[in-house]
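Ops channel
N.P.: pipeline sanity check, posting one input/output pair.
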């Protein structure tokens, strides 16, 4: 697969032959031919972008689509709030544990060789979870969700490394912004889809997983052409040695980036869990599709911002630093204000939307810096470590927010605003990208 940067070669020919009536090379026809070739490339790239975007969207449906049905699951299966939160947490925890292993395998055997079987297992485990719900077996549902989490480790995290393999320059940052936007779009539409499917039966979402996985599978197989490996895979000892060298050299800002990305998703999923439970209680009594639409409002802010951010940052390190810090300031201030306004639903949702916009400024910048920090041979592991912490952030969100909700609503927002402020300080002092990243 060619890299995104198109290189124009200035080629001249010398000949003693009189070309007479032959048409000159270049001219209008040459321009037309070049234009057609560029159009063809552009169209092919659009389909490739779409195929890549389906992978993180499928992953995100795995959690966000289930958020609206957690209260129904508690009621129909006779489980506690904490047990229902484990349906989200165990999925993310299993993914987080397996991601580093999957990252190594993707560096060794190729990205598509990991993504394709992962999508198949992901969809099959969704069917198993659905039957577990029908049988009223919480153990089967939880086991199936853990299997889904293991398979999820081979989807979006590997897709991020694949983007780094396929593209460079501004197109890489745009593609990474698109994957983050796709991730966010999945978060926007999935509560609505989950609520609509729950109108049929509360566990219908589980049986929707294989449908979405099948669509993504077709796109990955037919629309993405993975570049050939230019050298033999490294042995495990040398591979780990290279990873440790990278962490020693760039660990200060890489680890800070990992933490910042994890915190952004911890807050996002924790707030979704909080909002989903609060909306169903007095005085709101909001359920079903209406609740799904409300849950989608903050996420829409994140999606739009992620796509725009990915499109404009290109490899501009100075702009990335500005946007990351502005994003964290927006998160810190808006979350601090929710301490006083969480009982006013309209203001509360507005503040959560501002926080989500801040997350949308932060994540595409982190993604671009991390994928550009390493060579192709180690990219899978580094992006996997990053995604591992992102998943663990998602896993920690619902149970910790549930625990804090039992103590006090104010404790929830005091905690996350303080965490955002600490992260702002770390990012401001420790992440100072070069003028041009990558």
């Amino acid at each position: 697969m060619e890299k995104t940067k198109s290189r124009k070669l200035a080629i001249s020919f010398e000949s003693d032959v009189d070309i007479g009536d032959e048409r000159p090379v270049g001219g209008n026809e040459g321009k037309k031919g070049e234009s057609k070739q560029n159009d063809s490339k552009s169209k092919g790239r659009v389909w490739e972008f779409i195929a890549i975007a389906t992978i993180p969207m499928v992953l995100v449906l795995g959690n966000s689509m289930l958020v609206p049905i957690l209260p129904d699951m508690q009621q129909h299966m006779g489980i506690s709030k904490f047990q229902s939160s484990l349906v989200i947490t165990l999925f993310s925890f299993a993914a987080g544990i397996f991601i580093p292993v999957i990252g190594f395998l993707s560096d060794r055997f190729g990205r598509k060789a990991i993504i394709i079987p992962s999508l198949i297992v992901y969809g099959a485990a969704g069917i198993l979870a659905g039957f577990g719900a029908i049988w009223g077996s919480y153990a089967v549902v939880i086991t199936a969700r853990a299997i889904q989490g293991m398979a999820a480790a081979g989807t979006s995290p590997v897709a991020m490394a694949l983007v780094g393999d396929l593209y460079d320059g501004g197109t890489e940052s745009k593609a990474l912004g698109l994957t983050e936007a796709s991730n966010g779009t999945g978060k926007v539409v999935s509560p609505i889809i989950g609520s609509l499917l729950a109108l049929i039966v509360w566990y219908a979402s589980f049986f929707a997983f294989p449908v979405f996985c099948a669509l993504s599978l077709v796109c990955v197989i037919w629309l993405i052409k993975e570049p050939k490996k230019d050298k033999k895979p490294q042995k495990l000892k040398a591979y780990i040695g290279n990873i440790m060298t990278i962490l020693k050299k760039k660990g200060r800002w890489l680890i800070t980036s990992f933490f910042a990305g994890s915190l952004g998703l911890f807050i996002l999923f924790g707030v979704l869990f909080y909002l989903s439970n609060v909306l169903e209680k007095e005085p709101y009594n909001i359920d079903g599709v209406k609740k799904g639409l409300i849950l989608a409002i903050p996420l829409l802010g994140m999606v739009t911002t992620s796509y725009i951010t990915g499109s404009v940052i290109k490899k501009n390190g100075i702009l990335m630093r500005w946007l990351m810090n502005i994003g964290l300031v927006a998160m810190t201030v808006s979350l601090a204000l929710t301490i006083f306004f969480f009982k006013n639903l309209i203001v509360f949702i507005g503040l959560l939307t501002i926080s989500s916009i801040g997350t949308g400024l932060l994540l595409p910048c982190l993604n671009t810096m991390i994928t550009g920090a390493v060579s192709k041979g180690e990219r899978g592991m580094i992006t996997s470590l990053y995604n591992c912490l992102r998943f663990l952030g998602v896993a920690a969100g619902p149970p910790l927010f549930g625990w804090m909700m039992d103590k006090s609503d104010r404790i929830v927002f005091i905690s996350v605003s303080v965490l955002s402020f600490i992260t702002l300080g770390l990012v401001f002092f420790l992440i100072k990208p070069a003028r041009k990243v990558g």
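N.P.: looks fine end to end. Residues 50-226+233-430 form a domain with the Growth Hormone; Chain: A; fold (CATH 1.20.1250.20).
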